[in-house]
């Protein structure tokens, strides 16, 4: 990882962290809920989706305030999804980012409300007046909504729950994760480029979306590898949880070595999709390597 990329990443992460702390309520009439919202969002995570927003924004000279609002919105949707996914009725996890999950630290009812409130706050931030031209802002809102709903992240979680104990084919597994994990990563890339002063051409947008699809799938394959090979201390969440729950994964489908090879092929496909963008895609290229560099 180059020093320039590390400096950029650290700078973006710090800006996003500070802005998340600022945009989340601190007290008020629902003080316990606000405390739980901040607990669920702050103090952990690599902020990969906000980094993708900012990196994609470099392709279209996007303004900083629009990129920051988009990055915050995507990260709040992600945090809401983790809070709900960890619930006993879903994946029943007790550890997230090295700390007790939200429902363990607070309670299940509060964790449900945390997810609801974070989702609402995400769309409130993205709908703020004056970020970009209203018609393009509406498109960003629609993209994030679709990525979050039954045809995206929520639908992918439903398919995941229904797949426990079953053997899925590779196309079935890829469709599930294209929804559960990939949809929000695609949305992050789309929002970043969509904040630009001028829209990308259709052909460049198609190439960028192809990159986002492969990057989203790469992220999930690496996640599956880490679940099998990394320790709980390294992951910050319970290691081996997918296997114990009898969930279909790329490792259970392919085996460890083949899943590693598949991750490498996805990385190469993602990089090939960026080839025509030149130097403006350097951050996206570096992020692709960063996603793949987590230890397994």
Please indicate the percent range of residues in DSSP E strands (runs of 2 or more).
under 5%
The first-level CATH class is given as Mainly Alpha
Largest sheet: 2 strands, antiparallel
CATH homologous superfamily label: Farnesyl Diphosphate Synthase
Q: What's the structural domain tally?
A: 1
- SS class: mainly alpha
User: How large, in whole angstroms, is the Cα Rg?
Assistant: 18 Å
The gist of it:
The protein has helices at residues 3-23, 31-41, 48-57, 64-85, 102-105, 108-126, 134-148, 153-162, 170-194, 202-229, 232-235, 241-244, 250-254, 256-273, 282-292, and strands at 95-96, 99-100. The chain has 296 residues and is an all-alpha fold.
Task: Characterize the structure shown.
The chain is mainly α. The protein has one domain: Farnesyl Diphosphate Synthase. It is built from 15 helices and 2 strands. It has helices at residues 3-23, 31-41, 48-57, 64-85, 102-105, 108-126, 134-148, 153-162, 170-194, 202-229, 232-235, 241-244, 250-254, 256-273, 282-292, and strands at 95-96, 99-100. It has a two-stranded antiparallel sheet with strand order 1-2. A hairpin with a 2-residue loop joins strand 1 and strand 2 (99-100). Helix 1 crosses helix 4 (64-85). The chain is globular. 45% of the residues are buried.
Chart the SSEs and their pairings.
Blueprint: H1 3-23, H2 31-41, H3 48-57, H4 64-85, E1 95-96, E2 99-100, H5 102-105, H6 108-126, H7 134-148, H8 153-162, H9 170-194, H10 202-229, H11 232-235, H12 241-244, H13 250-254, H14 256-273, H15 282-292
Antiparallel strand pairs: 1-2
Helix pairs in contact: 1-4, 2-6, 3-4, 3-9, 3-15, 4-6, 4-9, 7-9, 8-9, 9-10, 10-14, 14-15
